[in-house]
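Work Package 3 (structural annotation) set out to generate three-dimensional models for the target panel prioritized at the project kickoff. During this period the team completed the workflow that converts sequence records into discrete structure tokens, so that structures can be stored uniformly alongside our sequence database. As a representative example, we reproduce one entry of 476 residues exactly as it appears in the project archive.
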Amino acid sequence: MRSLIFLFLFFFYVSTAYGATLAEKVDKILRNNSCTAGADVSIFVKSLRTGEVLYSKDSDRLMIPASNMKVITSMAALEMLGPTFTYKTPVSFTGLRNGDVIEGDLVVTGSGDPFLVTEELFIMANDMRRRGVKRITGNLVLDDSYFDDERFPARWKTSRQRRAYEAPLGALSLNFNSFTISIYPSSNALEKPHASLSPETPYLKIVNRLGSVNSGKSFVSIDYKQGDDGREIVILRGKMRVGSKERTYYRAVKSPILYFGLTFISYLEKVGIKLDGKVIHSRTKVSSRELFVHHSRPMYEQVANMNKFSNNFMAEQIVKTIAAETSRAQGSEQKGVEKIEEFLISLGMKADRFRIYDGSGFTKENRLSTSLIVDVLEKGYRKWKGGPEFLASLAIMGRDGSVKDRLKSTNKSIRVKTGTLNSVSALSGYYPLTLDDILVFSMLFNNMPCGNGDLLNIQHRLLKEFGKINDSNSRP
């Protein structure tokens, strides 16, 4: 009898000390941290193999998802447009062609390519050269009428800093309608820090009013001025400490069409093609003869770039593309959002489980629940069309994208989508326990009373607990 009592007490002690369930461990982490104790928290964890719900906290509550909204947008794009969908940018001309001279206008018609970058522009200029064109006597006409003329989603609140993550939209855009400012400190206090812009383009001019100091903190202010010709002047003021680190700033342009046009003209000049006229913005279809069509990267690559680096511009361009391609009308944010909502309903999601106003998650008016995000992730995992491409689009913890430097110690390929706004943090994705046992999870934190860095550490602790789910008694 004594032996039975001893065994009972022993196993009770072991299970109590070492066998706390996942729910108990997660609750303890959340309860004992001031960052989460005062925040709105929603978490949902489920096994894809068994369908078992392993943890749920306010999982049906509508929360601000931040960039976890891109999970929905990318799934919708892969389903409605297809993984191999490409954007087409026709280059054509009006008038006549006389040998190597086009006696008329050069016309570029945009279709919303989110990843039309300077390297692509150089390819387009070379395609012109290979076709024997050396001169255009007319203007460069840029047609961006495939999308409406709304540069920002209606619910966005943009800042005067014009950061790259709040860049304007447009059917004909370049470099995500953004540019880079790089500042290198000087080697002594008598010299100015070196400042440069990328890409090099006639659209942008830099005015460097920075000074150098031997001690103290570095500070930089960035102002903008638009000339009478529409070009932008970037004015830098402040001080850089000698020997300090390089600083890099990513900023949005004000006039996407002029940015594209002047940069393209400069690339034409680099390959030996002269354009006599100027940049003309057209909002109507121009009758012209086709020279060639430039094709974008396929949608699965677009979605991967969007998700791994959480690119807001790409997400909103894709929303407008969904609208234009599925409704055969001008691409608009409103119509694109309606199509994404229809997509969710087609997956079996009820309309009271979401409120959507953009595709990137930049507005705080969006609402999703963690249970809905997990349901969408589960369907994405099991889908044949677009499913593999969706999984591959997510960043891998400690390996690449926006989480390259997070949880580097893990040997698991934890695929995630992050999300960050002021007082908002999100993390959702897949945690592979074994080859055939994968967790799908979503965690949303709103109204955080702490800095985002503190919450990232909590997310890492939670992920580590998810990884121990197969330990004795860890399952509920």
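Residues 22-83+300-467 form a domain with the Beta-lactamase fold (CATH 3.40.710.10).
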